[in-house]
Amino acid sequence: MSGIFLTGAVFAVCFGTGFFCFRLTETKREEYLKKMEAELADIAVTDLKNVPEPAAAGGAQLVTGCVAVANNYFLGVCASIRNLFGGEMHGYTRLCTDARRMALVRLKLEVRALGSRCICCLRYETTVIQMEQQGNKRSAAGVELMAYGTALLPPEGKNA
C-alpha cells in the first residue's frame, strides 16, 4: 500500500514541477514576444504578391525567420486526457500561435538588419520533426515553423 502512495507522490511532485516550469517559461516567452513585437511594429507586413513599382525601387531580398518547438511533456499529458473527451487542444493551439509569432519576430529582425521596413509576400511553412519509430507508432518530437517573405530594400542613399 505504501508503494502505491509513494508512486503517486513521486508522480504528483514531478507533474507539479513540470507544470511550474512550463508556466514559468510560457510567461517569459510571452513577455519577450510582447516586447519584440512592440519594438518591430514599424515594419509593415503584407501577403500581397505584387508590389507597386516605386516601392521596389531599391531592390528586394528573400528573408526568413525560423523556430523549432519541441513537444512539451505536460502538454502531451493534457492532450492525451483531452483525446478521451474530444475538443480543441488549447495548449497546442497556444504553442503553435507562439511559434508563428516568434518566427515573424525573427523575420522582422532580419529585415531590420537589412535596413528595410517592408515585407511583402509573407508565407509560413511547417514541418513535423519525427522521432524514431517505436513499434507501430511514430511520435512527433516537435515542429519547425518558418516564416519567409520578400524584404523591399530602400533605394541607394535613402534610409528606410
UniProtKB/TrEMBL annotation:
This is YbjQ family protein. The keyword Magnesium does not apply. It comes from the Bacteria. The keyword Transmembrane helix applies. The chain crosses the membrane at residues 6-25. Belongs to the UPF0145 family. It comes from Victivallis lenta. Keywords: Membrane, Transmembrane, Transmembrane helix.
